[in-house]
């Protein structure tokens, strides 16, 4: 019923596929997903990335992986989006659109590669689905971000026992009904959505936000569960590894990978 999805690209695939970071991402969700998939975009050496992705399939960490380039044109045609309409936002958007396009289950849980849920035994996913099934105006759910419950509450307009209700959308983490998001909903505009970073152009999350605001659609944010978002290019990379309880030898190896990427960047 629910597919887990995350994505990688050139600057982070090694962090996700070498070692057990991806394993921990999925395990921390504490949920029996119908499918676990990886979306691969904009990598220099497809053969090398494929080798590591195959290992994750062989070890039953994921069920399948897809290269964005193989499905991008089909996805854009399906959603009736012109590539140049993204402006600078194509590479910030196409992985998410391909993931939705390929999703076979009713619900899709997406995490960006630099977002991971905090350990919890709360089944927020089924609670969110139950609420979305009972209210057609709620089409997105997510945990709170970076444990900032005050900000989440301040942005909300209503609340239930387990969720805050608000406008807004983030591509860091979202649980969606894929049947809704497979529609041609990505060509709307709303002034409130202009708050997204200009460098991202007409990116995916901005388009979703516009659609939701124009049609009085809402997201729910869990009061019980939070996810952590840390950009891999920041100085907090080792803190992420520590939060994951990654062993010292593996931290040294992954930190070496991190330094190598910094040198090439």
Count of discrete alpha- or pi-helical segments spanning 4 or more residues:
11
- Determine the CATH topology: Spore Coat Polysaccharide Biosynthesis Protein SpsA, Chain A
Distance between the termini: 40 Å
Q: What sequence of helices (H) and strands (E) makes up the elements?
A: EHHEHEHHEEHEHEEEHHEHH
The CATH architecture term is Alpha-Beta Complex
Q: Output the CATH homologous superfamily.
A: Spore Coat Polysaccharide Biosynthesis Protein SpsA, Chain A
Largest sheet: 10 strands, mixed
Report the top-level CATH class.
Alpha Beta
- Strand segment count: 10
Total individual domains: 1
Secondary structure: helix percent? 25-40%
Radius of gyration: 18 Å
Question: Quaternary arrangement of the chains shown?
Answer: single chain
Overall form: globular
Computed structural class: alpha/beta
Describe the structure.
The protein has 265 residues and is α/β, with parallel strands linked by helices. The protein has one domain: Spore Coat Polysaccharide Biosynthesis Protein SpsA, Chain A (Alpha-Beta Complex). 37% of the residues lie in helices and 21% in strands. It contains eleven helices and ten strands. Strands 1, 2, 3, 4, 5, 6, 7, 8, 9 and 10 form a ten-stranded mixed sheet that branches. Helix 4 packs across helix 5. The longest helix has 17 residues. It is globular, with a radius of gyration of 18 Å.
């Amino acid at each position: 019923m629910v597919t887990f999805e995350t994505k990688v690209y050139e600057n982070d695939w090694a962090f996700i596929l070498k070692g057990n970071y991806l394993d921990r991402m999925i395990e921390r969700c504490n949920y029996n997903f119908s499918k676990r998939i990886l979306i691969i975009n904009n990598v220099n050496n497809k053969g090398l990335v494929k080798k590591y992705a195959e290992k994750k399939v062989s070890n039953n960490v994921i069920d399948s992986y897809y290269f964005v380039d193989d499905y991008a044109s089909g996805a854009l045609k399906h959603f009736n989006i012109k590539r140049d309409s993204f402006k600078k936002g194509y590479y910030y958007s196409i992985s998410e659109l391909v993931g939705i396009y390929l999703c076979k289950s009713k619900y899709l849980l997406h995490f960006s590669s630099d977002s991971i849920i905090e350990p919890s035994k709360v089944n927020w996913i089924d609670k969110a689905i139950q609420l979305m099934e009972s209210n057609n105006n709620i089409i997105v759910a997510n945990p709170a971000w970076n444990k900032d419950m005050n900000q989440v509450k301040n942005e909300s307009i209503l609340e239930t026992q387990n969720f805050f209700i608000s406008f807004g959308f983030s591509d860091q983490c979202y649980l969606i009904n894929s049947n809704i998001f497979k529609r041609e909903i990505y060509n709307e505009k709303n002034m409130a959505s202009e708050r997204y970073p200009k460098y991202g152009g007409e990116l995916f999350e901005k388009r979703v936000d516009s659609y939701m605001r124009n049609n009085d659609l809402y997201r729910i944010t869990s009061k019980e569960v939070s996810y952590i978002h840390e950009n891999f290019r920041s100085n907090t990379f080792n803190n992420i590894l520590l939060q994951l309880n990654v062993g010292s030898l593996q931290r040294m190896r992954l930190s070496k990978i991190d330094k190598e990427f910094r040198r090439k960047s």
